[in-house]
Amino acid sequence: MSDKKNRKNNNRNNNMDEDFNPKFRKVRKKVCPLCADKNLILDFKNADQLKKFISDKGKILPRRATGACAKHQRDITLAVKRARQIAVLPYTQE
Ligand SMILES: [Zn+2]
Questions:
Q1: Which of 8, 50, 66, 77 has its CA 20 to 30 A from that of 16?
Q2: The total number of structural domains that make up the chain
């Protein structure tokens, strides 16, 4: 009886492996890239710099992806939107 129970638990634990279950994923605290580097100033003419903050479809990445703080995420959004306006960055990508 107890053997059977143990085996069952083991199976469940194997299925809920660290790699598959997001519950066990190690959480690393993200540091805002703009707070971490004080010398880094967002420039809407610098496409290479802003490309880090947009997806391959050209969308602005959310904070959970960029790791930016609220203040800097607003700056990023503004810079990307300005860059699109002057055709440095695309609005969409096929
Ligand atoms: Zn920041």
A1: 66
A2: 1
Tell me if 61 is assigned to some domain: yes
Using the structure block, give the residue that is written with the tokens 């420039």: 43
In the reported structure, the alpha carbon of residue 22 is separated from the centroid of ligand 1 by a whole-number distance in angstroms of 26
Query: How far from each other are the two terminal CA atoms of the chain, in whole angstroms?
Result: 59
> What CATH number does residue 69 fall under?
4.10.640.10
Distance 37 CA to ligand 1 centre (A): 9
Distance from residue 71's CA to the centre of ligand 1 (Å): 6
pTM of the complete model beyond 0.85: no
pLDDT at 29: 72
